[in-house]
Design a protein that fits this description.
With about 350 residues, this protein is an alpha+beta fold. Helix content is about 30%, strand content about 30%. The protein has an eight-stranded antiparallel β-sheet with strand order 17-14-16-15-19-20-18-21. A hairpin with a 5-residue loop joins strand 19 and strand 20. The relative contact order is 0.10. About 0% of the residues have low confidence.
Length: about 350
Amino acid sequence: MDRADRNKISGSIKINGLTDPALAQHVPADLLAIFLEEIEIARELLPALDNQALLDGTMTPIWFGSAINSFGVQELMQGIADFGPEPQPQKAQPRHIAPEETKVAGFVFKVQANMDPKHRDRVAFLRLASGHFKRGMKLTHVRSKKQISISNPVLFLAADRELAEEAWAGDIIGIPNHGQLRIGDTLTEGETIRVTGIPSFAPELLQTVRAGDPMKAKHLEKALMQFAEEGAAKVFKPMIGSGFIVGVVGPLQFEVLASRIELEYGLPVRMEPSQFTSARWVTGPQDKTDTFAQSNKQHIATDNDGDMVFLTRLQWDIDRVIRDYPDIRLTATKEMMI
């Protein structure tokens, strides 16, 4: 049964506030009592909505609803329109980008592959930080120093997409590409400037992933690298042994990842518990990190960018590194500036 059919059957009832008698007619007394009690707790404990705090980034509004039932969607859209801030100056090196600047600059904050499984498409989502973009413009890909012609940019609204003829600072456009655009990339009208402040966080859960068919290990590597570039999971290649370790922030993501690999690549996989519980990026002088890696091979891996990662089993592992290797720094975040 689709959403329209459900709405026809259930209909909709308008409730005018918490004091409307109709509320008690349609909600069981025990559930209504809990609902009213929790509303009162929220009102007493949560601060009042402050527009300036929203703009400062110290307060975040929350809307409650259900997209699948079309409940609260309109309120969410209206709330974004009412409270969403205007484009702000964007942190970058060697200088910040002001939204009122005339030249186009933007950064990739998300990559999504196989949005249309029939075409194996790959879309990079670019947020414009400044300028007036027009379809067909040639922008400089700062990381590769090459120009890219943006001939088919798209705008998205739910499942609908349309060609983006133009866009302004604050707008988000999708750029179909074949893998040259990655999270953290900056596109400009020629200036060598890199947007900063896009962090990559260390995963909280780790598992080993293996192809159901050992002969398809290379196919698995390709699929995992694709998802790592999307940001859907962290993928680590251990220095010792074969196979890959994937990291996520929630256990359900393992199931989602396995399902996508099988659906999009026709490759059944199995997830297995890992001896490691967390990962930290390794930084320090080159000679020191090389020595550190050689002395701790069983803990060392690389991520999809080739950066060194220290895989841990216990907090003791991290404490040992801090104690024994003062020149080595272990971090739980990595700057996605490329």
